[in-house]
């Protein structure tokens, strides 16, 4: 008698319509995730480091000659990037000749480039201080950066320093 009192729940039938809706939902989710991932991949990093590898290759001999000329100067170029309490990053650059005297009559151009995306790059304007050093500020975020310093006199680049650093 107790067996008759327990009502059995009717079993739900798996129909073709249910299978079709599940398949459509599955592929809609896959297509949506793919569309989001493609959008993120295309907008965050272009994957291009130089506009024309051919033109960059043509300038190789010129860069090689500039490196030999730079080495013969025996200059010391020292750049320090520190973060102030205000959040601004301060770059200090010392340019000294072979006798460790400040080099006069030069301009220093500083570029802070992000290793992953050129959208975050900064050009840091530098001014010469009375002691012969150069100083400037930027709003760079913490992380890894590539600091490029070009020492220029007139139209000629005399020295280039490229270093990777961590800004805290």
Structure explained in plain terms:
- The protein is α+β, with helices and mostly antiparallel strands and 168 residues long.
- It folds into 2 domains: 15-40; 75-167, Sandwich (Immunoglobulin-like).
- Helices cover 32% and strands 33% of the residues.
- It contains 4 helices and 8 strands, in the order H-H-H-H-E-E-E-E-E-E-E-E.
- It has helices spanning 2-5, 16-44, 53-58, 60-73; strands at residues 76-83, 89-96, 107-113, 122-124, 127-128, 134-138, 143-153, 156-167.
- It has a 4-stranded antiparallel β-sheet with strand order 1-2-6-5, with no helix packed on it. Strands 4-3-7-8 form a 4-stranded antiparallel β-sheet.
- Strand 5 and strand 6 form a beta hairpin.
- The radius of gyration is 30 Å and the shape is elongated.
Which descriptors would you attach to this protein?
2 domains; 168 residues; alpha+beta; Immunoglobulin-like; 4-stranded antiparallel β-sheet
CATH superfamily of the largest domain: Immunoglobulins
Which residues sit in consecutive blocks of at least 5 with pLDDT less than 50? none
Average pLDDT taken over every residue: 88
- Proportion of residues in β-strands: 25-35%
How widely separated are the two ends?
A: 78 Å
CATH class of the largest domain equals Mainly Beta
Q: What's the oligomerization state?
A: single chain
Number of helices: 4
SS-based structural class? alpha+beta
- Structural domain tally: 2
- Write down the CATH topology of the largest domain: Immunoglobulin-like
């Amino acid at each position: 008698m107790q067996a008759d009192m327990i009502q059995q729940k009717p079993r739900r039938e798996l129909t073709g319509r249910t299978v079709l809706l599940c398949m459509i939902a599955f592929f809609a989710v896959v297509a949506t995730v793919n569309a989001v991932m493609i959008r993120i991949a295309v907008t965050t990093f272009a994957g291009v480091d130089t506009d024309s590898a051919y033109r960059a290759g043509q300038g190789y001999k010129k860069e090689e000659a500039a490196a030999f000329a730079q080495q013969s100067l025996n200059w010391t170029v020292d750049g320090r990037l520190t973060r102030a309490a205000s959040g601004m990053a301060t770059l200090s650059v010392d340019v000294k000749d072979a006798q460790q005297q400040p080099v006069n009559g030069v301009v220093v151009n500083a570029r802070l480039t992000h290793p992953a995306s050129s959208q975050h790059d900064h050009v840091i304007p530098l001014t010469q201080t009375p002691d012969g050093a150069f100083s400037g500020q930027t709003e760079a975020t913490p992380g890894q950066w590539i600091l490029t310093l070009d020492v220029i006199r007139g139209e000629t680049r005399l020295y280039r320093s490229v270093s990777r650093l961590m800004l805290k």
